[in-house]
Amino acid sequence: MAAFGVHSHRCHLSKLPGLSARRSSSRQSVRLQATHKVTVLPGDGIGPEITKVALQVLEAAGKNHGEDFKIQEHLVGGAAIDATGQPLPEETLAACRASDAVLLAAIGGYKWDSLPSASRPEGGLLALRTGLNAFANLRPAVVLPQLADGSSLKREVVEGVDIMIVRELVGGIYFGQPRGFSANEHGHKTGYNTMVYSEPEVERIAHVAFDAARKRRKRLCSVDKANVLEVSQLWREVVTRVGKEYPDVELSHMYVDNAAMQLLRNPKEFDTVVTGNIFGDILSDEASMLTGSLGMLPSASIPSDGPGIFEPVHGSAPDIAGQDLANPMAMILSAAMMCRYGLNLPQVADDMEAAALLGLLPKWTPRIRGLVLLNLLVLLVATNWVVLRDTETFFDAFDFAALRFTMQLQPSLLS
Ligand SMILES: NC(=O)c1ccc[n+]([C@@H]2O[C@H](COP(=O)([O-])OP(=O)(O)OC[C@H]3O[C@@H](n4cnc5c(N)ncnc54)[C@H](O)[C@@H]3O)[C@@H](O)[C@H]2O)c1
Ligand SMILES: CC(C)[C@H](C(=O)O)[C@@H](O)C(=O)O
């Protein structure tokens, strides 16, 4: 038990979100301080590198508000396979279940690519999602003005994009049965999967999406392939039915192939998008490029109750692992989402997002940094920040975030 009076600080869907970047009121109701139990899963590839950065920012921001995090690291993915033979050891799942939130970096790598599906690192991630029943995956794609030129699309196309993709995460073709390999009547080896959704599965994700849309710009686009697939026809029917309970939200439907095209043609037409597991996987990677880098997109995977999983949209990037090239932004922003939606610590989330945005100021030289700092201080004082804060801690967070990102918007990070 912890935050805001009496309720537990594990995930509550009712607290979810417009989720676009926004400041919290500095006048919060009185809350009890508590230790927040966070299970951290660094995973593979760039996972440990970006985890280190995110935890330093988390701890600095937490300190600002007297919040204490009890961090426990556990194995998942390839690292867990190497150590235990399992991509999701029992001990890891038990620790996740017993925590207030799970912060996961990324799993996977070439080394484990030839293993059978369930034994691969990806199998561990999927088992974690189902093990916590984290059915609602929220993937915000917001284009920051300072990154608008980093997108492969024109500035005028992407500037101002603010999309929330709500992806169903524990059903659909990823989990449908039957699945496997067999031989057809010609003796040819075949592989098959089943894309299946039941009415309750669609209903619950539709409610999450309508609630999110209601707190945003009140437009929801449901993406399916109802011109071909029965599973999508059911999806459309159920989403339409649920929509009757949200007369204030404008609902539209779009085929996934058209949605993929419209996301590039006119991304600003989208506000909130709801879709199934595989379409959401693909469209969220596509949306990430609107923001300039896959390394920018955080996500929250939320159950109806219990701890949520907070993880970047990107993978373990084995091609750049260990070279200090990874953009830690998505991981920091995922940890911020964890504070906001998993731990009910909106002010800590605000600080983390602010620190992350500072890291995006281009081309740091000592002189520019000094000037920016000065301007920033003026801005912060003007917006009531510094007067309310422990300045030294703020600068800890600032220094770390801004310098460690180094990035100076290296073109390689905007791949
Ligand atoms: N949630 C997850 O853990 C997750 C998600 C996607 C892929 N994966 C796994 O990751 C492995 C690699 O998959 P992939 O190459 O298709 O996808 P990926 O997201 O790991 O990488 C795609 C490209 O984006 C770059 N990139 C990704 N994150 C970056 C960051 N933070 N900073 C800078 N550049 C970044 C990579 O260098 C690569 O060029 C696979 O094993 C895959 O299954 C895991
Ligand atoms: C690694 C893989 C199982 C995962 C998915 O497909 O869900 C990834 O692509 C993601 O988007 O988180």
From TrEMBL:
Cofactor remark from the record: Binds 1 Mg(2+) or Mn(2+) ion per subunit.
Coiled-coil regions listed in the entry: none
EC class name: oxidoreductase
Gene Ontology process terms (BP): L-leucine biosynthetic process
Cofactor(s) this protein requires: Mn(2+); Mg(2+)
Annotated localization: Cytoplasm
EC number of the protein: 1.1.1.85
Highest taxon, organism lineage: Eukaryota
Transmembrane segments: 370-388
Keyword field: Amino-acid biosynthesis, Branched-chain amino acid biosynthesis, Cytoplasm, Leucine biosynthesis, Magnesium, Membrane, Metal-binding, NAD, Oxidoreductase, Transmembrane, Transmembrane helix
Keyword Nucleotidyltransferase: no
Keyword Transit peptide: no
Pathway the protein takes part in: Amino-acid biosynthesis; L-leucine biosynthesis; L-leucine from 3-methyl-2-oxobutanoate: step 3/4
Main location class: cytoplasm
Domain Isopropylmalate dehydrogenase-like: 37-381
Catalytic activity annotation: (2R,3S)-3-isopropylmalate + NAD(+) = 4-methyl-2-oxopentanoate + CO2 + NADH
GO molecular function: 3-isopropylmalate dehydrogenase activity; magnesium ion binding; NAD binding
GO cellular component: cytosol
Oligomer and partners: Homodimer.
Family: Belongs to the isocitrate and isopropylmalate dehydrogenases family. LeuB type 1 subfamily.
Function: Catalyzes the oxidation of 3-carboxy-2-hydroxy-4-methylpentanoate (3-isopropylmalate) to 3-carboxy-4-methyl-2-oxopentanoate. The product decarboxylates to 4-methyl-2 oxopentanoate.
Protein name: 3-isopropylmalate dehydrogenase
Species name: Apatococcus lobatus
